[in-house]
Specification:
Layout lengths: L8 E7 L5 E13 L3 E6 L3 E4 L4 E3 L4 E6 L4 E8 L2 E9 L3 E3 L2 E13 L5 E4 L1 H10 L4 H20 L8 H19 L1
Parallel strand pairs: 1-10
Antiparallel strand pairs: 1-2, 2-3, 2-4, 3-6, 4-5, 6-7, 7-8, 8-10, 9-10, 10-11
């Protein structure tokens, strides 16, 4: 598998289990790229929905993708703290400037105080029936949801206190380099 280079930009492509595109983030700056982890940053990036609608992200975000975990984490930096939006998803694959994953509907919204809400359980149940998710996918997602909730409670990974400071600083560094090269 190819690995994106730090400082380059990639598109993020989210698919559904049936193979159809769900959502595309036009530009995310790679802050770390290894076989197992991609950490990126973006701000006011264009997002295109499957129906063609577009919108811009509102705040700077640090994005965390893992090649083994069945979730990805978007850390949104707002004035009143960091909010996290977690997509229960397949592990990422990286393919020629495109970071890709399958979105499995369940989401977890985490607030700055580390309280959280599990979202879209009804959407997951509907899509599980409509797209015939195999039982093994359900088991994997439930196990990974438990792992994720453990990370939140233990403040591990992107929920660790220093994660945002480290990666926001790196994001600002690469943005400055891009501005100087423009």
């Amino acid at each position: 598998m190819a690995i994106p280079k730090e400082g380059e930009t990639v598109q993020i492509h989210s698919y559904k289990h049936n193979g159809k595109i769900h959502r595309v983030w036009q530009e995310t700056l790679v802050l770390k790229g290894t076989r197992n982890i991609i950490i990126g940053g973006n701000e006011r990036t264009l997002v295109t929905e499957s129906d063609g609608r577009t919108w811009l992200t509102r705040e700077p975000s640090i994005c965390y993708f893992h090649a083994e975990n069945w979730f990805n984490i978007i850390c949104m930096l707002r004035e009143d703290g960091v909010y996290y939006y977690v997509n229960m998803s397949s592990p990422f694959v990286y393919d020629e400037k495109y970071l890709k994953y399958i979105d499995y509907d369940l989401d977890v919204k985490v607030f700055p105080d580390m309280s959280y809400l599990i979202l879209d359980e009804d959407e997951y149940a509907d899509h599980k029936r409509q797209m015939n998710y195999p039982e093994v996918i359900d088991l994997i997602l439930q196990d990974n949801l438990k792992k994720l909730l453990g990370w939140i409670k233990q403040r591990k990974g992107p929920f660790a206190p220093d994660f945002i400071d480290v990666w926001t600083s790196r994001y600002e560094f690469y943005k400055q380099i891009q501005e100087e090269q423009s």
